[in-house]
Amino acid sequence: MSRRASGLKAWVIQRVSAIYLALFGTYLAIRFAFAAPADHAAMIAWVTTPWVAVGLLVFVPVLLAHAWVGIRDVLMDYVKPIGLRVTALSLFGLLFLASGLWAVQAIIVARIA
Amino acid sequence: MKISVYRYHPETDTKPRMQTFEVEERPGMMLREALLEIKAQDETFAFRHSCGEGVCGSDGMNVNGKNMLACVTLVADLKQPIEVRPFPGRPVIRDLVVDMTQFYEQYRNVQPYLVRKDPLPEQEILQSPEERDKLDGLYECILCGCCSTACPSFWWNPDKFHGPAALLQSWRFLADSRDQATDERLDALEGPYKLFRCHTIMNCVEVCPKGLNPTKAIGQIKDLMLEKSV
């Protein structure tokens, strides 16, 4: 693990993704706190607005990359048995990949429909 | 005043225990002096100490839950009853004496000495006052171990993570204008463990008896690594 897994790269990904998450996350929080879409149609209309769609399409992989570095750190710190660690890393990797693809698909389908 | 100390002799005790001693407090009394009084009452009590003035770094210990040097800690400043334990996360050799081997190994790993590639000059290698100023806050470390043994990342991975004390010294030589091994030093720190287990918890900064800032030094190493790689 320590030979191959990156140190600097993971750290930079975590820092850079944090900037985007902070900015777009703030926008999402404000939007949903003060002017949340009233119904499903309004939600679709909001998601399909070009700049929101692009923002969300970037947000999903950036969020997952950030989460991946974080969960990898937690597992490296606390889970010592190598079999358990690799299993946990694989499960989280698959979970993140599936969530990401599902979210991106939802955005694209909303755009097409 | 009452002082509760950690007692453990691995060869005879099955498990550690706390033992309370009554010590008469004197004005200006340091914790080291109080521990010496305990030692006078019970000579089997073991702890390390030497200079008595915060220079040698021998009497680091965990007092009321915080790592500190006993010799520069006024007992009057401590909440009573005072609870004295060995450094957390280190194997106990006896009472307050712990095995610091891994700590010193991590220090050795960062090559804590100047590396020169050019032939050594006849005289000193000169530095400008500005270059010398960069070493302030770095060279003062006495390797007492208060920081590294307060660091959760060092508790979990003491064999792989260098820890705050060693990384402060790593930056001390990276920041030194006379050192010529910057790339080798940075290459040696790559990977997720040696440097990047630091999650800026900053316990190191809170406990350093010399008021140094290993977290800042670690941040500067990361910045330099980034600068050299893009």
TrEMBL record, chain A:
<keyword id="KW-0816">Tricarboxylic acid cycle</keyword>
<keyword id="KW-0812">Transmembrane</keyword>
<dbReference type="GO" id="GO:0017004">
    <property type="term" value="P:cytochrome complex assembly"/>
</dbReference>
<dbReference type="GO" id="GO:0020037">
    <property type="term" value="F:heme binding"/>
</dbReference>
<dbReference type="GO" id="GO:0006099">
    <property type="term" value="P:tricarboxylic acid cycle"/>
</dbReference>
<comment type="function">
    <text>Membrane-anchoring subunit of succinate dehydrogenase (SDH).</text>
</comment>
<feature type="transmembrane region" description="Helical">
    <location>
        <begin position="83"/>
        <end position="108"/>
    </location>
</feature>
<keyword id="KW-0472">Membrane</keyword>
<keyword id="KW-0997">Cell inner membrane</keyword>
<keyword id="KW-0249">Electron transport</keyword>
<dbReference type="InterPro" id="IPR000701">
    <property type="entry name" value="SuccDH_FuR_B_TM-su"/>
</dbReference>
<feature type="binding site">
    <location>
        <position position="78"/>
    </location>
    <ligand>
        <name>a ubiquinone</name>
    </ligand>
</feature>
<dbReference type="Pfam" id="PF01127">
    <property type="entry name" value="Sdh_cyt"/>
</dbReference>
<protein>
    <recommendedName>
        <fullName>Succinate dehydrogenase hydrophobic membrane anchor subunit</fullName>
    </recommendedName>
</protein>
<feature type="transmembrane region" description="Helical">
    <location>
        <begin position="50"/>
        <end position="71"/>
    </location>
</feature>
<keyword id="KW-1003">Cell membrane</keyword>
<dbReference type="InterPro" id="IPR034804">
    <property type="entry name" value="SQR/QFR_C/D"/>
</dbReference>
<keyword id="KW-0479">Metal-binding</keyword>
<dbReference type="GO" id="GO:0046872">
    <property type="term" value="F:metal ion binding"/>
</dbReference>
<dbReference type="GO" id="GO:0009055">
    <property type="term" value="F:electron transfer activity"/>
</dbReference>
<feature type="transmembrane region" description="Helical">
    <location>
        <begin position="12"/>
        <end position="30"/>
    </location>
</feature>
<keyword id="KW-0408">Iron</keyword>
From TrEMBL, chain B:
<keyword id="KW-0249">Electron transport</keyword>
<keyword id="KW-0560">Oxidoreductase</keyword>
<dbReference type="InterPro" id="IPR050573">
    <property type="entry name" value="SDH/FRD_Iron-Sulfur"/>
</dbReference>
<dbReference type="GO" id="GO:0009055">
    <property type="term" value="F:electron transfer activity"/>
</dbReference>
<feature type="domain" description="4Fe-4S ferredoxin-type">
    <location>
        <begin position="131"/>
        <end position="161"/>
    </location>
</feature>
<keyword id="KW-0479">Metal-binding</keyword>
<dbReference type="GO" id="GO:0022904">
    <property type="term" value="P:respiratory electron transport chain"/>
</dbReference>
<dbReference type="InterPro" id="IPR001041">
    <property type="entry name" value="2Fe-2S_ferredoxin-type"/>
</dbReference>
<dbReference type="InterPro" id="IPR017900">
    <property type="entry name" value="4Fe4S_Fe_S_CS"/>
</dbReference>
<dbReference type="InterPro" id="IPR012675">
    <property type="entry name" value="Beta-grasp_dom_sf"/>
</dbReference>
<dbReference type="GO" id="GO:0006099">
    <property type="term" value="P:tricarboxylic acid cycle"/>
</dbReference>
<keyword id="KW-0813">Transport</keyword>
<dbReference type="GO" id="GO:0008177">
    <property type="term" value="F:succinate dehydrogenase (quinone) activity"/>
</dbReference>
<dbReference type="Pfam" id="PF13085">
    <property type="entry name" value="Fer2_3"/>
</dbReference>
<dbReference type="GO" id="GO:0051539">
    <property type="term" value="F:4 iron, 4 sulfur cluster binding"/>
</dbReference>
<dbReference type="GO" id="GO:0051538">
    <property type="term" value="F:3 iron, 4 sulfur cluster binding"/>
</dbReference>
<keyword id="KW-0003">3Fe-4S</keyword>
<protein>
    <recommendedName>
        <fullName>Succinate dehydrogenase iron-sulfur subunit</fullName>
        <ecNumber>1.3.5.1</ecNumber>
    </recommendedName>
</protein>
<comment type="pathway">
    <text>Carbohydrate metabolism; tricarboxylic acid cycle; fumarate from succinate (bacterial route): step 1/1.</text>
</comment>
<dbReference type="Pfam" id="PF13534">
    <property type="entry name" value="Fer4_17"/>
</dbReference>
<keyword id="KW-0001">2Fe-2S</keyword>
<dbReference type="InterPro" id="IPR036010">
    <property type="entry name" value="2Fe-2S_ferredoxin-like_sf"/>
</dbReference>
